[in-house]
Amino acid sequence: MSEPSTPIVRKRATASRKKKRNQIPFGFLVFALMIVVGILLSMRESALGMFWLFGGCFGFILQKSRFCFTASMRDPCITGSTSVTKAVLVAFALTSIGFTAIKYSAFAAGQTIPGQSYIMPISIATAVGGILFGIGMVIAGGCASGTLMRVGEGFTMQMLALLFFVIGSLWGAKDMGWWTEHFIAGAPRVFLPDVFGWLGAIVLQLLIIACLFVAADLWERKKMGTTEGE
Amino acid sequence: MAEYELDCMGEACPIPLMKTEKKMETLVAGDVLVVHIDHSCAMKNVPEWARKQGFNVEVEEVDDGEWDVIIEK
Amino acid sequence: MKQFWEKISKNRYYQMVFKNPFTYITGAVLLSITQIALFAYSGNPWGVSGTFANWGAWLYELFGGSVEKWFYFSSTGAQNTLQAGILNHTGTMLNVGIIFGALVATLLASQFKIKKIKAFKQIVAAVLGGLLMGYGARLAGGCNIGALFSSIASLSLSGWVFAAFLLVGAFIGSKLLAKFFM
C-alpha cells in the first residue's frame, strides 16, 4: 500500500498535545510476569505451562495483526471489504494442510486419529447456533477470541460481553440435554476423508477455499469498486 | 475545503467505520474529515477502507491508544 | 533509563515487530503455525468457548448452584475437569494466556488505554451479544475457533455448515447494528 504522496494540509493546531507516556517498560514487566507464571504452572504440571505459552502466542498474534474472525463475516456485509475474509481463508488452507498431515500420519501408523471430537454433528442446532452466534458477535463487537483479546487491550465493554458470554454458555449447557435429545443425538458427523479419501478430501477442501478466495475478491471489487492492484 | 471532525472515541468495531462511511458521503471533494478513534482495529480498517475508496489518508497517533485518522475526499 | 526506553521505541526493528501492526496475512500464517503446533503437541486443536461453559459452571457453584445433574456435564471426563478446579484446567490457561498476550502486545506498542463504556446502548449490546454468543456456541459445539477454524481444518463438514449460518447471522447482526446500535 503506497502512502499518499502529498501530505494532507491540516488547519487544526497540532501543537497542544500532552506528552505521551512510554508504556514499553510496563510491557516488559507484564512479559516477565507471564514467564514467572509460566514457570510456576510448569512446575505444577507441564501441560498447564504449555497451554499458557500457547495462549500468550495466540493473544499476541491476534492483537498484532488485529485478526478478527468477526470482521471476516461482518465486513463483507457492511462495507464489502474482504481483506480479513481472505486472510481467514489463507489460515484455513494452511492449517488444513498441517492438520491433515498430522491426522494422516496417525492413521497410516494405525493409531487413533487425534482431534476427531472436532468433527461435530450437523443438525438444526448447528444452524441455530451459527445464526445466534453470528448475530451476537457482530453486536458485541467480537467473537470469543476477539473478546478475550480486547479484554487485554482494556475494553470495558468487552469485559461485560465476556461475563455474559460465560453466563450464556452456562445457559446453553443447561439446555443441551433437550437439544441433544431432539436434534443432535442422531445427527451425522461427516469427516471428509471418509467420503472422498484422504487425498481427495484435502484437494477438494483447498479447491473450495481457493474458489471462496476468488469469490471474496470479486465481491470486494463489485461492492467497493476497488481501484487498487488492477 | 472545509474540515469536519467525527468523534468515535469509545466506539467498538464496526461502528467507527460505519459512521465514517456515512459522514464521507456528505463531504464534497477537497473536504477533510478527522476521525478520532481509540479502537486498535478501527485504526487499521478505517484507513484501509478509505484508501480503497481512493481517498488520501493519514493516521496520527495522538496519545496512548488514541488515533486521528485524517481523510481527504 | 527513560532515554533507554525512548531509544528502544525508535529502533527500526522494534517498530517493525512491536509497534506497527502486522498485516492480516502475516497474522493468518502465524496463527496457522501456532494452531498446528498446538495440535501436534496436545492432540487437540484450539478451542475457546468450551472453557467458558466450565467457567460458567464454576461461577454457578460459587453461588451455591450445582451442575452435576446436567446432561452437558454428565460425562466422567467433564466431571473430573470440574472437580480438578480452575487452576488445573488447561483451557483456562489458554484463554487467560490470550488476554495477557494481547495485553503485552498492546503495552509494547505503547497503545494501552482503558476504554470506558460510553453509552447505555453499549451495555445492551455487550449483554445481548454475550448471551447470544454463549448460547449459540454451546448449540453449535464451539465458537469461531472450535466450531469454525479448528473444525474446518480438521476436514469436518460441520465447520463449513457452521460458516454458512454464521454468515447469515452476521448479516442479520449488521442490519440490527445499523438500526439500533449506531
Characterise this structure.
- The complex is a heterotrimer of chains A (230), B (73) and C (182).
- Chain A is mostly helical and 230 residues long.
- Chain A is built from nine helices and no strands.
- Chain A has a domain at 23-65.
- Chain A is globular and about 55 Å long.
- The model of chain A is unreliable at 1-6 (pLDDT under 50).
- In chain B, 32% of the residues lie in helices and 37% in strands.
- The model of chain B has no long low-confidence stretch (mean pLDDT 90).
- Chain C has helices spanning 2-10, 12-19, 24-42, 49-62, 76-84, 90-108, 120-140, 144-153, 157-180.
- Chain C is globular.
- The model of chain C has no long low-confidence stretch (mean pLDDT 94).
- The chains are: A mainly alpha (230), B alpha+beta (73), C mainly alpha (182).
- The B-C interface holds B 9-12, 14-15, 18-19, 38-40, 43-44, 61, 63-66 and C 21, 106, 110-113, 115-119, 122, 125, 177-178, 181-182.
Largest sheet of chain A: none
Compute the CA-based radius of gyration of chain A: 22 Å
SSE topology string of chain A: HHHHHHHHH
Question: What is the mean predicted local confidence, pLDDT of chain C?
Answer: 94
Helical content of chain A, roughly?
over 70%
Topology, pairings included?
The complex is a heterotrimer of chains A (230), B (73) and C (182).
Chain A: H1 24-44, H2 46-65, H3 69-78, H4 83-108, H5 124-140, H6 144-153, H7 156-184, H8 192-196, H9 198-224
Helix pairs in contact in A: 1-2, 2-6, 3-4, 4-9, 6-7
Chain B: E1 3-8, H1 15-26, E2 32-37, H2 42-52, E3 56-63, E4 66-72
Parallel strand pairs in B: 1-2
Antiparallel strand pairs in B: 2-4, 3-4
Chain C: H1 2-10, H2 12-19, H3 24-42, H4 49-62, H5 76-84, H6 90-108, H7 120-140, H8 144-153, H9 157-180
Helix pairs in contact in C: 8-9
Highlighted features:
heterotrimer, A: 230 residues, mainly alpha, 0% strand, B: 73 residues, alpha+beta, 4-stranded mixed β-sheet
Summary, kept brief:
The complex is a heterotrimer of chains A (230), B (73) and C (182). With 73 residues, chain B is α+β, with helices and mostly antiparallel strands.
